[in-house]
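re: ur question from earlier - yeah i can do the single chain one, its not a big deal. heres the input i used so u can compare w yours
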Amino acid sequence: MSLETLDGTGAQDEQLGFRVEGMDCASCVGKIETALGRIDGVSNVQVNFTNETLTLTRSTSSRNTARDIAKKIRSLGFDVQALPASEMSAAPAPRHAAHAHDHAGCGGHHDHGHGHAHGHAHDHGHDHGACSGHDHAPASASRGAPSTPPNVSMRVEGMDCASCVGKIETALARMDGVSDARINFTAETLELTLASGGPTQLGHIEKTIKSLGFGVSDVRRHDGSAPAAPAAASTARHQRWWQTKKGKHVLGLGGLMGSAYAIAQFVPGYAEWIFAAAVIAGVLPFARKAFALAVSGSPFSIETLMVVASLGALVIGEAEEAAAVVFLFAIGELLESVAAGRARAGIKALASLVPKTAVLLDAAGGQREVPAASLRVSDRVLVRPGDRVPADGKILRGESSLDESPITGESVPRQKAIGADVFAGSINVDGVLEVQVEKTASDNTISRIIQLVEQAQSSKAPTARFIEKFSRYYTPAVMAIAALIVVVPPLAMGGDWGTWLYRGLALLLIACPCALVLSTPAAIASGLAVATRRGLLIKGGNALETIGRVRAIAFDKTGTLTEGKPRITEVLPFGLFKHQQVLALAAAVESGSNHPLAKAIVAHAKSLDVAIPQATGASAIAGKAVRATVNGSALAVGSPAHAEQTATLTAAHRREIDKLEDGGKTVVVLFDEASKNVLGLLALRDEPRRDAREGVAQLNAMGVRSVMLTGDNRRTAQAIAGKLGIEWEAELLPQDKLRLVNEMKRDAKVAMVGDGINDAPALATADVGIAMGGGTDVALETADAALLKSRVTDVAHLVALSRATMANIHQNVVFAIGLKGLFLVTTVLGITGLWVAVLADTGATALVTLNALRLLRFKGAPEANHGDDAGRPTTLSVPSAR
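and the output i got, formated as tokens:
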């Protein structure tokens, strides 16, 4: 359950993890974070709402033990369970993206850099200050990330709305040694840093959260190492609503209310006593939670307001209404819990994709069933037809169709053979496969997608931050108005004290900002869930908001708008050289490069069984050529523009190059650097993706300008752009693309779409960087969003989803504020009472959540209407573009 780490001073920190059950909304996260933050010796509190886990760091010199922390969480009303060390999940430490752009560009300039395998580091400049310290994947620069990673995590269950998060955060903030508490409402997890040597122990944190009425479990201490595989869901999370504590509470109160109404028909005098008993029995759990919250620093919680209002109504003789208030509030809490559970369903489904067991093959070929989580790199596993692949790996033997829809969202199974990569969770359709494990359970694609989604859900969008700030003033302001309503009319106008006390109590129930605070995170969580289901990974609410405001998108050509699989169409030898000689020499020079053009040349040579000689001293001229010594001759393969400067290009050479480029082909020149003689030309064609034209048209229909930026020659660029109907700019070096993106940003929000390897500076500079990577490491880590299906239409779906999410947020905010304002007026005027006030709070919260869940039915961007202008490309009209 705990791991110990040394800080720079030699002091020891314990990293704890808990499973916290009972979190129903983002406010529960805040309650836990606040309570644990006040425990001495506890820091880096992080709550993951979706996974219902909490992590923190505890100083070993602290007087507060792990048991004390768990006890603290229990005091907040949550169920807490300590996580065993095997299930500990360390949040990734802040990192900067190292974009391995082996090739400074692409296309006609042949701008690939042999020997740049390690890439160059580029810090992303996107503003993630919105993220409240949550760690982002590398592409989303971790500016706001804490210097110390969280060392304690736990699952917090029972959070029904946004105010739950605030309550927990407030309670944790009052605890000495607790810092960086992060609650993920959707994942139901909490992560924090617990300082070593402080008075706060893990048990104190757990006790505080439970005292607030939340469940705590899977308490984990970790050391920042690679996260473990997603823990199995607790049994509580699979309970039917009537089996939960809240469900039983509602059923019990309903029985008492029904009994009271039945007795009122025969013995009216006793009905009041039963209503009073219902009030007392119903309000006790809320009263305990309200007291714990007040002690933890959240005196203005909805529980406090509800307890005061119901007991006040009981005192003034309104027992029936008081019982109704408690009953309706309990129903509202249950509805919020059910709605929150639906929002978490997506991430739970992802975690269940990886099989529990795998068939391990030993050296002698024997088979043995083992837990999939125990697989190690280089292990060999057998995958039979119908089985799910247990780990990311490479096929050693066999051939089969694999359904990768759980990972990429692609519904059509892909045929794979020896040497092909496979993803954990994909389904083997027909053949028998022997797979070599290349990633452990904690590092496979499914686990990393889950981690990215959880981190995204933990981050706070700009709108959410504004609303949270607003809500801090809203509740005290309404309480002040309620106090004035009770006191001023009787004193100033001689009003009846009982009447105005009743109205003041009703007004208290309108003071909770749950619906307002939940309006944004609920929509963001739903938007991220539907994006993940469609193979769109978005790293946080900040990115999700920004994408919808994008008015211009710059596309890299190779591998983004095109398939990224160029094929040689012609090899033209000159002088005494023959076709196969030119191909062999070019392949030798290119043999060490990973650029698509280089790979195409080498692959073509191998397919013809051409003997490729050994090359030495290979080096790259960024964006221009690759050089190497072959058979004692200094040779280069580069763009025609580079060859024109460093070799002797005749008119005949130039005519052939022009003819090939006019056909939309990319031409590279093989020449001898010593004699300057051209030895041959190689022409390659990279076809546009089948959906590229439709994707560009969809973006145009949404008012988003699309521009193709390429290092290829102008003729090839124009030919590709003509097929797609897109603006273009050609013969660009990486710094040119960077400059153009900066110029485009002067007028509007700009997104850059690349393959996750090239164009790192432009991806980092754009307001939103989008990587097309088909599930590769780069696609998962490079930019602010990744398209696992590598479809251009998914860029349009991304923009449409962002706009739909923001529209949903605006609807929720207007509805929440409007409903509160309406009932505030009707309550003051005496038109509505306690019953309606409760419905105005819990009903609004439930409706806001249900409205956010409508996003789960998002169908994608509408199909484009190809107008007459389609297919008429123009060069990019940016000042100083050349």
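Confidence is low (pLDDT under 50) at residues 1-10, 89-147, 224-237, 877-882. not sure if urs matches, ping me
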